Amino acid sequence: MAKKGKKKKNLFLLADILLAVILIVVGVIIINPFKSDNKAKDKEEVKGTDENQNEGKDKEIVKEKTEEEIKLEKLNNINEKLDFFKMENLDRYIAYKEKNPNLDDETVVVYVNIGLDQEFYTNRKDSPFKDTNKVITNKFYFLGENYVPKDLVKISSANSARELYLQKDAAEAFERMANDAKKEGYTIRAVSTYRSYSYQQGLYNNYVNQDGKAAADTYSARAGYSEHQTGLAADIDNANLSYTSFGLSKEFNWMQENCYKYGFILRYTKANEFITGYKDEPWHYRYVGVEIATYIKEHPMTYEEYFVRFLDK
Q: Of 60, 130, 182, 260, which one's alpha carbon is 20 to 30 angstroms from that of 45?
């Protein structure tokens, strides 16, 4: 009996050990999923935080792009259509458009690039393309005090009122034009061509003393801003009427039909006074070369408009 009791006691002890082992195993199984779940939750929370931060950064980037896109939309995304659109002028385009809602977007870009959203003689720039037929000088582009064009050539006495000079290409073209006009019974004569900086300064100052600065600025260039200093401009008459009456002559009509063939354009007209800043001058012609003159003849515009469209890169 003692042996049986002892054996039975051992069986109970073994059963208790097995039960304990089972409980421990079950407990581990039960606890681990919770730990796994918590770890997963922790990872999700970290991931969510990272995503939120990245999303915030993305929103900031989108916001910056949207602001620029909104501005461009005000101009109907004209930047995608014009190769002379300048992103640095974007705010100026929009401001000018708001002040001039009647203008189309392309015209707004052209006028701002010229500088018409600013006062004349402000934001001065150095004249580009010096010593070429492409040079520009106006109330925004400055030639400088010491600029003298290369290859100045004297015009023949047959086609000039006195001793006058033009840049070589311009002089040769002017001679051909005047001689061809003569063959058709017209007289084209130069009365004022190249002027030095000092000459223009004296001329302008005399006009200021005579009529005041505001008035003088409407018909005379300040020194350093005159086309005459380029050696590419000529004031002309018909040897009978004063040059200021050239617009009334038959020669004026001939020039309107033919000057482009020789590379000249009528530089200042009443219709374009707001662009050039000068009153109508039917006697003032500028040499730009046949290619440019022909384009302007076929697509009427000022040289300022041509310049910003095709040369101001």
A: 60
pTM over 0.70: yes
Decide if 114 contacts 121 (C-beta within 8 A).
no
Both tokens of 34, joined, read 């919770």
User: Which helix or strand (DSSP H or E) is residue 265 part of?
Assistant: strand 264-268
pLDDT band (50, 70, 90) for residue 2: very low
Same-domain status, 98 and 243? no
Question: Could you read off the pLDDT of 100-125 as tens digits, one per residue?
Answer: 999 999 999 999 999 999 999 999 99
Range of the domain at 167: 121-310
The percent helix, strand, coil of the chain (3-state, each to 5) is 60, 10, 30
- The model's pLDDT over 53-79, given as tens digits with 9 standing for 90+, comes to 555 555 555 555 778 888 899 899 999
Query: How many domains is the chain partitioned into structurally?
Result: 3
Say if CB 278 and CB 222 are below 8 A apart. no
Catalytic residue among 175, 227, 251, 281: 281
- Here the tokens at position 297 are 């003849």
For residue 225, give the nearest of 133, 305, 122 by alpha carbon.
122
The DSSP element (H or E) to which 202 belongs, if any, is helix 197-211
Assess whether 21 and 57 both reside in one domain: yes
Q: Is 227 a catalytic residue?
A: no
